Amino acid sequence: MSPVTANTFDAPKAGRWPLFGWLSFAFFAFAQVYAVATSPADQMMGHLQKMMYVHVPAAWVTFVAFGIVLWTSVLFLWKEDERHDLMAAAAAEIGAVFCGLTLILGMIWGRPTWGVWWSWDARLTSTLVLFLIFVGYLALRSFVEDAQRRGQWSAAVGILGAINVPIVWMSVKWWRTLHQLQSDPRSLSGEYALGLVLNALAFLFLMIFFIRRRYEAARYERAAEHASQAAALGGYNG
Amino acid sequence: MAFNDDIRRIRAIVWKDLTTERRSKAGFNAVAALGVTILVLFGFALGPDAQALRDAAAGVLWLAVLFAGVLAFNRSYQVELDGGALEVLLLYPGARWAIFAGKLIANLIFVLAMLVIVVAVGIVLFQVVIPAQWPSLIGIMLLGVIGLVSLGTFYAAMSSRSRAREVLLPLLLYPMLIPVLLASMEATKAFLTGDIMNAVGAWVQMLALFDVIFLVATFWAFESVIEV
Questions:
Q1: Which one, of B69, B65, B70, B83, lies nearest residue B20 by Cα?
Q2: How far apart are CA A127 and CA A142, in angstroms?
Q3: pLDDT per residue over A102-136, tens digit each?
Q4: Which of A104, A133, A147, A222 has its CA 20 to 30 A from that of A110?
Q5: Distance in angstroms (rounded) separating the CA atoms of residues A82 and A232
Q6: Is-contact A7 A227, C-beta < 8 A?
Q7: Nearest-CA distance from B22 to chain A in Å?
Q8: What is the pTM of this model?
Q9: What sign does the CA torsion over B131, B214, B106, B41 have?
Q10: CA separation for the pair A160, A152 (Å, rounded)
């Protein structure tokens, strides 16, 4: 008689994902401590360099999340399986969070090193535009009720947004280089590299865990919608 | 033969949309007036200094066209929805891309007509010195408007049929338009200021490339957007 059982096929199993989550958090804590403890003070930036271990992984993970949105959007339009749409939505939400984190951490890093909170260079500007595209994507999803319509529309918006990101990067790069050359020396010696790789992996695991949890929640929401629709139509009796 | 039929369909939709516009004129007058109002507001923001106005003219003109044009895109579907006409339009036999092409061309003509008014007023208000090669400037404007209208017509197909369409269309459209706007503004600006950096050619090439990419992408994606 429990209302969820009629649609258990719709609801995903948690399985070992909670364990994966705990391990990811533990690994993240380890990677942060390791990186901060082992890396020497940078010649130019001093200990400010440690911002790299949160800012750069967040940026990389953002692009992975956006890649997942693109991939699952294409799959949804191709195969019309609702799970791909829900996965795209989950990845977009987590991607938006990491993208916002990238921008804010970058500003906190930029202020003491460059002396400004913001610079209109290609990398910063296209990350900001990516964030705005994510926000538009999520707004579209929240303004459309019909599941099929929401899926197809947001898939189209997601794919076009993904096409747009390299184009924005290219145009802003042109815009900047025509005015002034941006110097961006980013050489990385070995004692910093391992910490960065470990943290990138930690962020990746966390992202996968977050997306999975968000995806499960979305599946439950859909299962509940199905159940209430069935009940409203009178075809559902437990 | 099939292609000729598509051309006829496109022509019919363009004709229908433009006739609706021509018979009432209210939509066009309001949108054009809004474009001019935005120019005036930018004038206040930038101050009365003639050189400052002239430097900002290219950017301001494009923003005025963008802000006013956005209203036109939602409208072009809104008139269909009021009478349930869009569903009937979709029921007619023939390819869906013909509907998109028809709407796109009708919007293109609408926005270009508005652009003429906004540019004419802008030249006066912002004390723009018209360059000798002004015919090329028309080409740049045409390319810019094609990019603007292709994305605008595509996103309006969704936003006009959702809740909160007034906010959704700009939110989706503006970030997508950044490359097109940037290229249009820079090309126009380089033209108006004498092209010291010799950058017009590169910007125009980029603008043409963006137009092709976005036209192909929106034509392809329209099918999956309009059918639900």
A1: B83
A2: 23
A3: 999 989 988 888 888 888 888 888 899 999 998 99
A4: A133
A5: 22
A6: yes
A7: 32
A8: 0.86
A9: negative
A10: 12
- Chain A hits for B221, CB-CB cut-off 8 Å, are 156, 159-160
Q: Which residue of B has its CA nearest to A147?
A: B228
CB of A96 less than 8 A from some CB of B: no
Distance CA A202, CA A22 (A): 12
Residue whose structure tokens are 């535009």: A129
With an 8 Å Cβ cutoff, is B62 touching chain A? no
Question: Tokens 């054009």, residue?
Answer: B32
Distance to chain B for A194, nearest Cα, Å:
36
A20-35 per-position pLDDT tens digit: 999 999 999 999 998 8
pLDDT confidence tier of residue A185, bands split at 50, 70 and 90? very low
Report d(CA A42, CA B142) in Å as an integer.
Answer: 52
Contacts 24+ apart (CB under 8 A), B201-210: B202/A174, B203/A174, B204/B139, B204/B140, B204/B143, B206/A170, B206/A171, B206/A174, B206/B179, B207/B140, B207/B143, B207/B144, B207/B147, B207/B180, B207/B183, B208/B143, B210/A167, B210/A171, B210/B147, B210/B179, B210/B180, B210/B183
| Chain A residues near residue B171 by CB distance under 8 angstroms | 135-136, 139
ipTM of the complex: 0.86
